[in-house]
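To illustrate the input format used throughout this study, we show a single complete record. The first block contains the structure-token representation of the backbone; no residue identities are included at this stage. The design step must infer an amino acid for every position from geometry alone.
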């Protein structure tokens, strides 16, 4: 019968509550205090009702009116206190929601990109952000004082009922204890089912995102696939919804059954008991009925809070599972931007632990070198570039980083490097801010304007307050987006290593050559690795590394590889022939 006591755990909830208390201590303490005061009022109201009954019997009108006025004042006090507590809750919610969300977002920034591609991470992150939803947090804040308030009320009402007949409170508590385990079992099943549906809900939301995102929707409409995607989303949503509705209905039926026992059956049974035991006196009958109703109601509230704590403990565990998720251990290093050298010994990498995307790679990149990674699609160029920047962790072999002064730890590379992705992202910010994101420690607007002009933007475009039609700004073409991304890299020229992944694929060859020359001139002796399919760009590099099937098949200067007349020679001439 007392199995529910094992589930009434405070460990994670107490930890989360202490975090909330540190964020806004005054409001939380005041909320608890006022809620405790509210807990005494039902006892006072029951006593007043008894006195009103006695006054009716004695016919003393003045005393009767006094008690009625006092009862009204009690009701008004409850309204005032509830309003104050509600206002405090809203203010607490504003304080804590942002604090918890910032904490989780900062955590996600410290987790490796490869980890974020795993389903396990996606489910944990989804549940963690769900754990800090406003209703969850505010319930945790108020449940402690609510339980205290209800316990105070229950103790005072129990003492009152014991003075009438000892069996009445005992009978109510027996019913309460027998139903609470049913509540916990029902709500535990509900939460377990909810956890099992996390992946399905994430997939449903992802499909909806494709239909809401302007870029994916444009492509879907181009291929006339938007209706098909809509149907796929509807199917996914209905599958999830049917399971969710079944789960909600099952929980609702169980909870309603328990509520009926506590709220609807106890009062008639107690009334029958009063008739059988021949309890007399209007005062005793009114007191008994009112106190019984209040006691059953408050025990019901306690049971609901116990059930909440049982579930909330697991939800809080989801929050802390995210905070404890393994992450990169970044060490704070000195601000030095010396060119970085990289030495790879027999490194291999696989996305699915079955087939290697890279196999037995050995390469030595000297500090300050400009390296072109070339090869056919799927040869491993982008994978190698991400391994070299320590975005992906190697699975076999060793990667050493160094400058002319000292060896570097792999964890230092992210702060000493810049990456240009071939999918060019721009943000709905000003055009200058899009450039300044490359180095937030140097927020010089003049530097941003100089870079923008050097990559082909005019004064009118530079002075736009925001990028994106959705917010009344300008819309960028694919080529302009690539220029912005390259400009961002130019702004972070004060770093030891830069990687460009298909830097200027959307630009014409002449402008590409012009911008690459500008870029290499700007970064000076910074080490640069650039992935490209346009072999003409390789002419600007110090060395060319060609990959095929996840292996390096050629490595050397452009002239050397052309003289060997191998695969590089073949591809270079094939592309050159297309431009004739």
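Output of the design step:
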């Amino acid at each position: 019968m007392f199995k529910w006591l094992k589930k009434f755990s405070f460990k994670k909830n107490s930890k989360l509550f202490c975090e909330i208390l540190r964020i806004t201590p005054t409001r939380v303490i005041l909320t608890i205090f006022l809620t405790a005061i509210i807990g005494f009022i039902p006892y006072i109201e029951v006593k007043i009702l008894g006195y009103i009954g006695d006054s009716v019997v004695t016919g003393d009108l003045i005393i009767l009116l006094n008690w009625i006025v006092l009862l009204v004042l009690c009701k008004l006090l409850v309204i005032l206190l509830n309003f104050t507590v509600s206002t405090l809750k809203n203010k607490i919610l504003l304080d804590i929601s942002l604090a918890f969300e910032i904490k989780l977002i900062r955590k996600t920034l410290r987790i490796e990109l490869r980890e974020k591609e795993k389903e396990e991470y996606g489910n944990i992150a989804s549940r963690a952000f769900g754990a800090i939803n406003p209703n969850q947090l505010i319930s945790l804040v108020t449940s402690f004082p609510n339980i205290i308030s209800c316990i105070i009320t229950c103790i005072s009402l129990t003492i009152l009922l014991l003075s009438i007949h000892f069996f009445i409170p005992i009978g109510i508590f027996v019913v309460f204890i027998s139903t609470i385990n049913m509540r916990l079992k029902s709500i535990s099943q509900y939460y377990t089912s909810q956890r099992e549906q996390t992946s399905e809900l994430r997939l449903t939301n992802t499909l909806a995102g494709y239909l809401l995102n302007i870029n994916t929707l444009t492509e879907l409409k181009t291929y006339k696939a938007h209706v098909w995607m809509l149907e796929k989303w509807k199917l996914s949503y209905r599958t999830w919804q049917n399971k969710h509705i079944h789960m909600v209905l099952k929980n609702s039926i169980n909870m309603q059954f328990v509520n009926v026992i506590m709220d609807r059956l106890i009062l008639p049974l107690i009334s029958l008991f009063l008739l059988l035991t021949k309890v007399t006196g209007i005062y005793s009958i009114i007191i008994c009925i009112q106190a019984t109703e209040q006691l059953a109601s408050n025990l019901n509230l306690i049971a609901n809070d116990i059930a909440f704590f049982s579930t909330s403990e697991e939800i809080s565990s989801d929050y802390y599972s995210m905070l404890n998720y393994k992450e990169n251990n970044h060490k704070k290093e000195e601000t030095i931007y010396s060119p970085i050298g990289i030495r790879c010994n027999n490194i291999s990498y696989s996305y699915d632990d079955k087939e290697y995307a890279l196999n037995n790679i050995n390469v030595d990149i000297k500090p300050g070198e400009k390296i072109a990674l070339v090869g056919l699609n799927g040869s491993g160029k982008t994978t190698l570039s991400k391994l070299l920047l320590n975005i992906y962790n190697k699975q076999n072999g060793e990667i050493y980083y160094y400058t002319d002064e000292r060896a570097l730890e792999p964890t230092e590379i992210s702060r000493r490097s810049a990456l240009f992705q071939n999918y060019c992202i721009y943000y709905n910010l000003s055009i200058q801010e899009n450039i300044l994101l490359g180095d937030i420690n140097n927020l010089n607007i003049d530097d941003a304007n100089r870079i923008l002009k050097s990559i082909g933007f005019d004064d009118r475009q530079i002075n736009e307050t925001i990028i994106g039609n959705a917010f009344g700004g300008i819309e960028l073409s694919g080529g302009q987006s690539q220029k912005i991304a390259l400009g961002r890299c130019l702004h972070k020229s004060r770093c030891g290593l830069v990687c460009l992944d298909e830097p200027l694929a959307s630009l014409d060859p002449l402008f590409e050559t012009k911008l690459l020359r500008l870029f290499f001139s700007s970064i000076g002796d910074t080490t640069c690795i650039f992935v490209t399919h346009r072999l003409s760009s390789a002419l600007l590099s110090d060395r060319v590394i060609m990959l095929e099937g996840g292996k390096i098949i050629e490595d050397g200067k452009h002239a050397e590889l052309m003289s060997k007349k191998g695969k590089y020679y073949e591809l270079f001439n094939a592309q050159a022939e297309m431009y004739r």
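Structural context for interpreting the output: The chain has 21 helices and ten strands. Strands lie at 341-350, 356-365, 370-375, 396-402, 407-408, 417-420, 497-501, 527-531, 543-548, 551-556.
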